[in-house]
Amino acid sequence: MRLLCSNDDGILAHGLACLERAAGELGEVYVVAPDREQSAMSHSLTLHHPLRPVQLGERRWQVDGTPTDCVMLAIEALLPQRPDFVLSGVNHGPNMGEDVLYSGTVAAAMEGLALGVPAIAVSFAGRDFLSHPDALEPHVEPLARLLRHLTALPAFPAHTLLNVNIPAIPAAEIQGVRLTRLGRRVFSDSVARMKDPWGRPIYWIGGGSVTWSAGEGTDVDAVRSGFISVTPLHLDATHQARLDDADEWWRQP
Fold it and tell me: Which CATH number do you get for residue 160?
């Protein structure tokens, strides 16, 4: 099996190294990842300047672009053959609820899906990852087992990526795996107003507080309960239920 690994935290990220080791137990691993931090880049492409991949090893490249760039370049130009799966992560922090709209980790997996390759995004749901980078180490072997299971499903769901979130608890305390839907996340006070050294107003996006809606069956509820969350996502953003009940709200213009 041929596996393409990418991420949004950069080629030097510890999470990517952990993913490589987990994937290495399943088959031949290729790595194409950004040369720097690209978090919250979502599904952006670099269109206004050329990309220059730098080969760091036999099956390893860094790219001066976004996670989406990396996966597109890998599949369309760099790899000798199409991969069997795209694996993205392990992200340094959760990707649950509305996070998936902004996440470069999920976007890398989604680009694989858009190009016809089954994909899995993996995140470690701990915000203090940088101060405790070794917290992910004990999860590598369990992650390898989970990836082996998911990639061997008799019918991997078509037109679907699987978004995996691992609770930030010791590996021995993981309660199991749950199939979930997305929860809800609401940011408050996420724009900080400041002034530059010349007194001009500037704004910094980030920080603030987060409120999670963790209903039963959501990714948030599963992770809070000590379970690994696996959420199927797809490219079709159509609200099917609103089409089905269109007679209640739609009037022909």
Answer: 3.40.1210.10
